[in-house]
Design goal:
mainly alpha
């Protein structure tokens, strides 16, 4: 990221931390240290929100499984022999295909935002863990309209279906609780970004109005260029 570090609220720091936690859990099976951390979470017993219920489920599961057991569970769900039980890629959930147009758009946006893919990373950039990592960074470092634009273009339209699918995979035990946590979190994020969208000026870069204006200008430019080409063709023919 090339943006200057901005002042971060307590709520935004918590959101960024949860994004990074989900990224860690979806990138590989949790380490023994991470399981210990999750198993010792202090929760408000009087809070009956969906997020707290999800945290409670993750906490309970973290005390029931070892990292070695979850290595097998993670492999079956995300890799398997030949293929896993779920495809953790945005392109797959958005189009039904891998390495499709959404991935190309994502790579372009990541380049504009200043993100570079590390050489040792083998997974495509639209892996759900990678997207969570990016969002965690954007919340801490980028203005609201950039967060909103990235979320709308690359996460918001499919993440709920991903969570529902992950929860229903045959091998998911611990990861069913991860799916529960992710679903509750992204439902809260949808509300967060809906409010953010209301707060962003209509002419702000990245807003829907600005995007529509940009697309309009691009279409007009293409029409003008086509007219010039057609005119040149008529001149050559005459």
């Amino acid at each position: 990221m090339t943006e200057l570090v901005r002042e971060v609220s307590e709520n935004d720091q918590l959101r960024a931390d949860i994004y990074q936690l989900l990224a860690a859990l979806l990138r590989s099976q949790p380490s023994a240290e991470l399981l210990q951390f999750l198993g010792n979470l202090e929760l408000d017993a009087s809070d009956d929100s969906e997020m707290t219920k999800a945290w409670s489920a993750v906490k309970l599961a973290s005390n029931q499984f070892s990292s070695e057991q979850l290595e097998d569970e993670y492999f079956k769900i995300f890799y398997g022999v030949g293929s896993g039980e779920i495809m953790p890629y945005a392109s797959w959930f958005m189009t039904g295909s891998l390495m499709d147009k959404p991935l190309a758009m994502l790579r372009q946006d990541l380049m504009q935002l200043g993100f570079e893919r590390e050489e040792n990373v083998k997974e495509p950039e639209d892996h759900v863990a990678a997207l969570c990592e990016v969002m965690g960074i954007l919340i801490l470092e980028a203005p609201g309209y950039r967060q909103l634009g990235f979320y709308q273009r690359h996460i918001g339209s499919w993440i709920d279906r991903f969570c529902t699918t992950l929860a229903a995979t045959p091998s998911a035990a611990f990861y069913a609780t991860v799916a529960q946590l992710a679903k509750a979190f992204f439902e809260a994020e949808a509300n967060e970004f809906e409010q953010l969208q209301l707060d962003i000026p209509v002419n702000c870069p990245g807003s829907e109005a600005a995007q529509a204006e940009s697309e309009k200008n691009e279409a007009e430019a293409k029409t003008e260029e086509s007219a010039k080409i057609e005119s040149s063709g008529r001149e050559l023919a005459s």
